[in-house]
Amino acid sequence: MTLLPPLSAPLAHTQSIRPVPVAVAMGDGIGPEIMRASLSVLQAAGAALEIREIALGEAVYKSGHSSGIAPETWDVLRATKLLYKAPITTPQGGGYKSLNVTLRKSLGLFANVRPTGAYAPFVATKHPGMDVVIVRENEEDLYAGIEHRQTDEVYQCLKLVSRPGTEKIVRFAFEYARRNGRRKVSCFSKDNIMKLTDGLFHKTFDAIAKEYKEIETDHWIIDIGAARLASNPGQFDVIVTGNLYGDIISDIAAEIAGSVGLAPSANIGAHGAMFEAIHGSAPPLARKDVANPSGLLLAGVMMLVHAGQPRVAERVHNAWLRTIEDGVHTADIPQDTPGAQRVGTKGFTQAVIARLGLEPRHLAPVRYGEAGPALAVPEAAPTVPAEKRTVGVDVFLHWSGRTPDNLATLLLPVAGGMELAMITNRGVKVWPQGLAETFCTDHWRCRFLAQAGGDLGHVDIVALLARLAGAGLDFIKTEHLCTFGGVPGFSLGQGQ
Ligand code: NAD
Q: What pLDDT is stored for residue 377 in this prediction?
């Protein structure tokens, strides 16, 4: 399994041995050990890298930067456009944001490519033929990180999905499949429930698939798709999916292929790229010389290909395959192969270095040097604004009375010229004609519609809010109900 073809991103133009500037973050937990191991293999193989070490993560968080990165470090990243990053620890609580998410989003690294393959019989797995690449959307979805506590009882996390973001990741997945001779792209979503957000993802997938007629496609609801991936990964080839689903299923895929410690990832954008293992900083394993450096090392292989050094990438990857074949394993890999030898992080690193120049005898050797045309980083089509009409408004209230009928009695006199169409609680319609059995929290959505199919203006909504406040009702948020080109841009209430 080759990991990543050359990209037509800014760095993919050179095959020369001029050193490529790369920012390197040593990470937390097992990070420093596996980064030292990976760099020593890359350097022994002849990688031409001009390393600029940067501080990211726990120490930076604790020095007072709640983002985990100091402002001046961004300048290094902007200059190198290339980051090789060991896993970092996100401190629990304290309002710390995940630096991984910040880096991916701030640098526009929209595509997260996560190849997972089996190395049977040298790494035990129930799925010897497995060879799946997960292309995970990297900037949107619930990872927008926009969360609010709205009432005593209810907390909210916003799921944001954009048309350009979806178009770019889906097109990237098809381009990746075409460029690598992959036969099939599967889309995973949950559009039976999230008809607008995941519906956009699925519809965009269907539309773009038509441009890649030679590639087979299918769509899976994420729950059964994840189950099938775990039970029968051979039926999947390339999977394109949203941020959260992609995060979860790539750990599943890596683990059933052999170990989460084996899987690399590339984070690709139009202006740069970041390479890392998919796993985290595994604090309990730190400083014990037991961590598997393979995920980060293979991420380094992807980085070398990206940076225009495919021959070096090939040397490292083939030496690594030979090491695995020879039964030299860290403790996370099942040791049931005859003659298998258990080693620590350092021992494994020395074993790979000792095999540089060798190729695997049983597994297929990797050839990056025979790469064809570069893979383009796609751009989304410009947005054509649709005719937008505001036909109503959802007003969310913090209200501690428990009966929807009582709330309706308070709302009806202040609806003014609008129709109170429904009240929901956690999305379920509770008025009119709710069920007495429905449990209600202190968080209510009250849907007001313009009369007789008319429009609402901002002034109407502000006036409604003023009347609600006058009636002693605590509104906590509004969502405008708009149609775009006549198509409703809002969902119905559950049971409506
Ligand atoms: P984790 O991936 O760090 O570790 C889970 C378990 O997987 C470990 O206990 C270990 O048994 C195994 N494992 C992981 N990597 C291994 C390796 N290289 N070799 C051998 N075994 C390995 O997940 P976690 O414990 O949930 O997270 C720990 C910290 O890592 C958290 O602070 C989290 O926020 C962070 N994290 C960082 C990244 C990143 O930097 N990209 C990604 C995920 C989690």
A: 84
